[in-house]
Design goal:
The mean pLDDT is 96. The protein has a single domain, classed as Glutaredoxin (3-Layer(aba) Sandwich), CATH 3.40.30. It has nine helices and four strands, in the order βαβαααααααββα. It is globular. A hairpin with a 2-residue loop joins strand 3 and strand 4. The chain is of the alpha+beta class.
Length: 206
């Protein structure tokens, strides 16, 4: 089965804007998504990236302008400068990984975590917020949290981050398909083209 390796930062506004379209691509072509939250600040430190709060005023202003354009284009409202903007994402990332390892609805969970930050002024570094998000989805929140706190899940989080750097990832969201990387939700059309072409080749070959 074809798969998409999806590397994302749990604080990524762009990942939130692209979430539904990524799921749509996977559903249309019967492609599996491997959800891989990463420590983007660590990725930045190893690939030359600059955290948002350290970027020039010009770059920050352009980010806001682009977000407004995409919000209109997609009809997805977000708060560009939420009260709890980009807090430490380690626990939320581990919580997402634990959900995935338990075979639960990780797609819905990570999207709702992003929504909590970018739409509802919530601090996703707060364990209570994460528990409430999972409960809203009728997921076993305490069970997910217990697993999230284990060394094994911590090791997976580290593995995903190291793997991302090894795969050439330098930003979020990042989609990798058959060795080709696509950076940003504005590259989802190109990702879909690659998936469609691969599927056509597979179907025509048998």
């Amino acid at each position: 089965m074809n798969t998409i390796d999806y590397y994302f930062w749990i604080n990524s506004d762009w990942a939130y804007l692209g979430a539904d379209r990524l799921e749509g691509i996977a559903a249309r072509y019967d492609v599996k998504i491997n959800y891989k939250p990463v420590d983007l600040l660590d990725v930045y430190s190893r690939t030359g990236g600059i955290p948002l709060n350290l970027r020039s005023r010009e770059r920050q202003a352009y980010r806001e302008a682009e977000l407004k354009r995409w919000m209109r284009q997609l009809a997805i409202p977000i708060n560009i400068t939420p009260r709890h903007m980009c807090p430490n994402g380690d626990l939320a990332s581990r919580f997402t990984i634990a959900c995935d390892q338990l075979g639960l609805n990780v797609a819905a969970l990570y999207k709702l975590i992003l929504e909590a930050e970018w739409c509802h002024e919530q601090d996703i570094s707060d364990p209570g917020v994460l528990l409430a998000v999972a409960a809203k989805l009728h997921l076993p929140s305490e069970r997910i949290m217990q697993l999230a706190m284990t060394d094994d899940v911590g090791a997976v989080y580290r593995k995903y981050t190291d793997e991302a750097v090894g795969e050439g990832v330098f930003g979020s969201p990042w989609y990798a398909f058959r060795g080709e990387g696509f950076w940003g939700q504005d590259r989802l059309d190109f990702l879909e083209e690659a998936v469609a072409e691969a599927l056509a080749v597979r179907l025509n070959g048998f």
